[in-house]
Design brief:
The chain is globular, with a radius of gyration of 21 Å. Helix 1 runs antiparallel to helix 3, helix 1 runs antiparallel to helix 4 and helix 1 packs across helix 6. It has 2 domains: 171 residues, Aldehyde Dehydrogenase, Chain A, domain 1; 141 residues, Aldehyde Dehydrogenase, Chain A, domain 2. A 7-stranded mixed sheet has the order 8-9-10-7-6-11-12, sandwiched between helices. A 5-stranded parallel sheet has the order 3-2-1-4-5, with helices on both faces. The protein is 40% helix and 16% strand. With 341 residues, the protein is an alpha/beta fold. The relative contact order is 0.13. One of its GO terms (molecular function) is acyl-CoA dehydrogenase activity. It comes from Arcticibacter pallidicorallinus. InterPro entries: Ald_DH/histidinol_DH, CoA_reduct_LuxC. It holds the Pfam family LuxC.
Length: 341
């Protein structure tokens, strides 16, 4: 396969995803019929984020960087992909990476997200017909040479056992965390609101916890996110989760803050319930970095304005759901893995 043609096809796909194509918009608007979490606004956000990711400059840098000093090992291998369905198009990057590495993508779509991905891939085939023989949809993985599977911590243990005899990448639950230092502006808080609320907080790159200085004043945070995000409570499934978790906190006498659409609770845990946000305090930057290092295996990315001496990926406020092509899930270089099999 021609690497140049792959780059061109990916670039054309990026342009398409940022266009006003009627069929694409129709699918975006219809997504909520199949998954109540996939509102037109949220699905459209995911489509635009993918389109922005697939810009010519980044595609060139990503593919050239991956192949630098490496070559594909032998003939094309069949790579089984078990896609998650927690947020729209969440497994699309894996598919692109399999295709860019010259392999065959055997795709098991999530039942929660099985309409938009095939349409977008059909357009990719239009841009580069050679992909038609490299994309296969299956109900059950079989006859594969390698696997990339994403699921919960429980399903990941099953995946580890089931796929132990082939090269694999297995992903479980991770969450993202934001580090505040008291210098945040209203604009910072609004941007952070997107890190928290985009896709209703269901993604691994969504912020589920705040790390704040001791005695932090949350009033400016609540004031800043009130107007832009109070509409979250109008989504019935989000509201149900808010009501349920609020009831649990009240019944248990758990100390928490509540602004009418978000519950804020001090907790050592990383994965907060939907419609809730955990926080913990730190004494100084060294203490903050130590806390982050301790839970690094649970972190997808860290949102912060400051430079931090940690191994986890650090992004600015509002950027957690806008990864670049080389921002690999769990910090595992998928491209390098695929070129090695």
């Amino acid at each position: 396969m021609s690497v140049h043609q792959i780059k061109e096809a990916f670039t054309q796909l990026g342009h398409y995803l940022l266009s006003d194509d009627e069929q694409l918009l129709s699918l975006v608007n219809a997504s909520h019929h199949y998954n109540a979490w996939f509102t037109a606004d949220q699905v459209g956000k995911a489509v635009r984020a993918l389109g922005t990711m697939l810009n010519g400059r980044d595609i060139e840098q990503w593919i050239d960087g991956a192949y630098a000093g490496r070559t594909q090992s032998g003939k094309a291998k069949v790579v089984g992909l078990v896609l998650a369905g927690n947020i729209p198009l969440v497994g699309f990057h894996d598919i692109l990476t399999v295709l860019a590495s010259g392999h065959i993508a055997s795709v098991k779509l999530s039942s929660q997200d099985k309409h938009l991905t095939p349409h977008i891939l059909s357009r990719l085939v239009d841009f580069y017909p050679a992909f038609a023989k490299r994309i296969v949809y299956v109900d059950r993985l079989k006859d594969f040479d390698a696997v990339i599977a994403t699921g919960s911590n429980n399903t990941s243990r099953y995946f580890e056992y089931y796929f132990k005899s082939v090269p694999h990448i297995i992903r479980g639950n991770r969450n993202s965390i934001a580090v505040l230092d008291g210098t945040e502006t209203t604009e910072d808080f609004v941007a952070l609101g997107h890190d928290i609320f985009d896709y209703f907080g269901l993604g691994c790159r969504n912020v589920s916890k705040l790390l704040v200085p001791e005695g932090y004043d949350f009033v400016p945070f609540f004031e800043a996110i009130e107007e832009p995000f109070k509409g979250m409570i109008n989504h019935h499934k989000y509201a149900n989760n808010y009501d349920y978790n609020k009831s649990i906190y009240l019944v248990n006498g758990a100390k928490h803050l509540d602004n009418g659409f978000l519950l804020l609770k001090r907790d050592e845990g990383m994965a907060s319930p939907l419609a809730a946000l955990f926080f913990d305090e730190y004494k100084d930057r060294t203490d903050a970095e130590a806390k982050l290092t301790l839970i690094s295996g649970q972190i997808q990315c860290v949102v912060a304005n400051a430079e931090l001496s940690i191994d986890s990926q650090v992004v600015g406020f509002g950027c957690s759901q806008s990864p670049r092509l080389w921002d690999y899930a769990d910090g595992i270089d998928t491209f390098a893995f695929l070129l090695s099999i």
